[in-house]
Amino acid sequence: MVELDTRRLSGRAGHSLRWVLDPMCGPRDMLVARWLFIRAIAGIYFSAFFALLFQVKGLVGPNGILPAGSYLKQIAEMTGARRFWFAPTLLWLAPESHLLIALMWLGLVASVLALLNLWPRLNLFVCFWCFLSFVVAAQDFSAYQSDGMLLEAGFLSLFFAPPGLFPGWGAERPTSRLSLWLLQWEWFRIYFESGLAKWLSGDPGWHNGTAMYEYYQNSPLPSWVGWYLGHAPRWFQIATTDGTLVMEFVVVFLLFAGRRARLICFFIVTPWQVGVILTGNYAFLNYIVLSLGFLLLSDFELLRLVARRWHPQSLDEAKEEQGFVPLPARLSALRYLKLVIATPCLLLVGYVTTVELIVMVAPRNPLPQSPVAILEPFRIANQYGLFAVMTHGRYEIEFQGSENGVHWKPYAFQYKPQALAERPRIYAPYQPRFDWNLWFASLGNWKQNSFVPLTQERLLEGDSDVLGLFAGNPFPQGAPRFVRTVLWQYWFTSIEQKRSTGEWWRRTLLGQYSPTLTLAPDGRLEIVEEADSLPPHN
């Protein structure tokens, strides 16, 4: 095999570069953390693809609410040959239901194989492209920070995961320090940028300590645990508000301290994330942050959880690794080629994510912005800002159908609050994208959320794919003549109301959210009644 003499890399500088970039010179005390993280990412991919199997046709299928085919056609008309870069999706082959479902199944199978540690790098590559293919074409149904988090972590995992069909712990093939640092950098940015977004937004709730007063009630998809915490005393809500800011602005900086400091950080942020998971259904978002947190730990801590006979290396060997490691004199051509490919990819992600952070505090900085535009279609270098502004009311859109325009039947939802006596559930990391989007739509009007009247149209047509997004069909004998949406405001019941009535929610009708629609005999869509002028809601 052709080999390259590394002595041509001069002295300490060349040594330092390989120490950072070359996987064979990478840390050998992160094997258990890497094994756990790759399993976690595979499991998160599984949850994403599993959920989409039941939703993708209704969301973006040919007869769905926002057909991917029509969207990609528009992109092709606007961008021509550049469409493959601006919209990097395998659905260019054929944006039909069979390919959509095939990609979800392919991603699901690949995630299971990666979970079983079978050729993890290849299977994570398959998962990445299948998920990116959906996200690029899903329009309103993929405009979530959680999707960007998964794509960024998934892309970096391609360089972080061990190679080979049966890598085991990957003790003979450690990871590069650069890929590890970028994953830790993503973890840090999720927290710190979210703190910056809260403070820079000017939201009074974060400045006066009241942000958590109605957080549990007004979160997109609350849980029953959140109901109880929503009735916690004021001092608890103020303490958690302040604690959130302290964690995002102070605690996360322990990442850059020593091993013991990172351990302390881990035992602060991990219970916090578990608490968020229990109190609100944010899909796989918090599971990604939770998984990235394991990269704060090294084998010093994690090997205690693994039986000694399964150790990838002894604790003594791990303790001996300090500073620079011995380097082989020669570098094979294959490894050199991998370095040539991986290094610019990782450095580009590092640069763009750094620029995205700097832009938050210095929008007019002189740093080149073209690399940001280059990576934007792939969503692998993102800016985060969770809960920057807290909502001040819980609003719910309800679809209703009627045969005569007088008596209306509601379409029941699978996950979002509707029935007053139904206990809010915990189902994350499963993500009901339609229910989730309706929470965002409820904060605006129907003209800003075109998928709402488009859903009404599909219900008038009796489309089975869209009906599958609901818990049931109130018109089993045929589609209704009229469909409208109304807007409710919801509140948690008090503890006394819950005890006396068994209801978790109370609500009041605010008015008609979107126009009442019907299909004319020639198939055209007609407006029967305009939407109401609703009071401000945000």
TrEMBL record:
**Which keywords does this chain's UniProt record carry?**
Endoplasmic reticulum, Membrane, Transmembrane, Transmembrane helix
What stretches pass through the bilayer? 36-54, 99-116, 122-138, 235-256, 263-282, 339-362
Q: Where is the Lipase maturation factor 1/2 C-terminal domain?
A: 380-515
- Biological process (GO) annotations? protein maturation
Topology in the membrane? Answer: Multi-pass membrane protein
Q: Where in the cell is it found?
A: Endoplasmic reticulum membrane
Asked if the keyword Cell inner membrane belongs to this entry, the reply reads no
Instruction: Kindly give the Pfam families that the UniProt entry links to this protein.
Output: LMF1 (PF06762), LMF1_C (PF25179)
The residues covered by the Lipase maturation factor 1/2 N-terminal domain are 143-300
* UniProt similarity note: Belongs to the lipase maturation factor family.
Name recorded for this polypeptide: Lipase maturation factor family protein
